Amino acid sequence: MITLSATLSRVKPSPTIAVSTKARELKEAGRDVIGLGAGEPDFDTPENIREAGKRAIDEGKTRYTAPDGIPELKKAICAKFKRDNGLDYAPSQISVGTGGKQILYNALMATLNPGDEVVIPAPYWVSYPDMVLLAGGEPVFVEAGMDTGYKITADQLDAAITDKTKWFIFNSPSNPTGAGYTWDELKALTDVLLRHPQVLIMTDDMYEHLVFGDYKFCTPAQVEPKLYDRTLTCNGVSKAYAMTGWRIGYAAGPEQIIKAMGKIQSQSTSNPCSISQWAAVEALNGTQDFIPKHNEIFQRRRDLVVSMLNEAEGIECPMPEGAFYVYPSIKGCIGKTAPSGTKITDDEVFATELLEDKGVAVVFGAAFGLSPYFRVSYATSDEALKEACTRIQDFCKSLS
Asked: Per the database record, which ranges form the Aminotransferase class I/classII large domain (predicted)?
């Protein structure tokens, strides 16, 4: 008899991956399915970045590298932080991992002890709490609903912090809501953190460049320099550079934490793909001209989806500041009955019935820690989004 680790019982599979897998299986079975679950740009990786990867292969840059990144990439990351965020880091303060997820996981594994608490605003990216649990910590959730723009307040943060709090995880613009904190809103949170010197700050800035309108991105160590020495600023090339499959994430922070993360990585995956690292050098150092062009397309899609979802009976969808997600409420659908005869008791039932009846795959809100909502990723074609939103409207109209 095989016995699995007891730690494994503390976590669950990724719901977002599960939704994408289910949609793919239905498509393969012949169903007409539109998948709105994956957080992945539908753009090709820009040509200059692809060419850099090809050159790396042709030049024989295919061997092991330093476990936590090549010097050229660390230098490019330092330059990016200075250019975009006004933050000064040395290469010794940089860690490069196989995607942003590994960076976050390494940091938690390197720092958490049993009983340590991690404050996480909800709704949250699905992996945050499970990574905390795998590392032996305890997630503490702070809920922020649509009434506060999906953003927590300073009072909420202050109330959640205890003498056991080790980390505060911060994500703006947010997955799953697209909500972005303003400078003043973030300053209110950093003022709280200044009063709790035992708390480390982990900021996930993966959607930094995916912002719309007049919204200006900012990050905690930039807003409050006094927090620099206890902030791990995390980012990556997946979203803004359409490089999800290249798997490169990075972080900058205190050398003690960076070294500990490198130690873990050296005994787990070792170095990220060498070819991907050289492509990431070009991504960070090369032209950034495609980013505003992509954002124009994302903003158009955002406006389309928000408009059409707000026309659906029982759905209310706020306008997000960034990323490529919307997080509409289905409060008006709860208690109604689907054409199958199933009562819509929660957002998971809503998402299941929507997929079965109309072939639209979304991720239910409970997966992100806040109901009754669902997440739509609008990182797909205008045509697919129009058809999907029309089907959602039809589904909501069919509820009785």
From this structure: 32-392
Strands, E, within 107-240: which ranges? 117-122, 138-143, 165-171, 200-204, 231-236
CA distances from 94 to 66, 71, 317, 339 (A): 12, 10, 38, 54
Q: Which is nearest to 261 in space by CA: 64, 116, 104?
A: 104
Radius of gyration for the alpha carbons in the chain, expressed in angstroms and rounded: 21
Confidence of residue 276 (pLDDT cuts 50, 70, 90): very high
Tell me what pLDDT residue 118 has. Answer: 98
> In this structure, are residues 222 and 80 in contact, taking their beta carbons and an 8 Å threshold?
no
Q: Is the pLDDT of residue 358 over 80?
A: yes
pTM given for the model: 0.95
SS3 361: strand
Q: What is the pLDDT of residue 309?
A: 98
Whether 52 has a pLDDT exceeding 90, the answer reads yes
**At 338, is the secondary structure helix, strand, or coil?**
coil
8 A C-beta contact, residue 176 and residue 368 = yes
- Decide if 23 contacts 37 (C-beta within 8 A): yes
> What is the side-by-side strand order in the sheet with 374-377?
325-326, 374-377, 363-364
The CB density around residue 123, as the number of other CB atoms within 10 Å, is 27
List of domains in the chain: 6-44+290-398 (3.90.1150.10), 63-285 (3.40.640.10)
Spatial contact of 352 and 210, defined as CB atoms under 8 Å apart: no
Interior/surface letters 255-286, b for 16+ CB within 10 angstroms, e for the rest: eebbebbbebbeeeeebbbbbbbbbbbbbbbb
Beta strand 374-377 pairing with 363-364: antiparallel
**pLDDT of 38 above 90:** no
Enter the DSSP assignment of 211. Answer: B
Closest by Cα among 354, 295, 296 to 328 = 354
C-beta of residue 345 within 8 angstroms of C-beta of residue 329: no
d(CA 265, CA 272): 9
Bridge pairing between strands 34-35 and 117-122: unpaired
H/E element holding 258?
Answer: helix 255-266
Strands (E), 216-373: 231-236, 249-252, 325-326, 360-361, 363-364
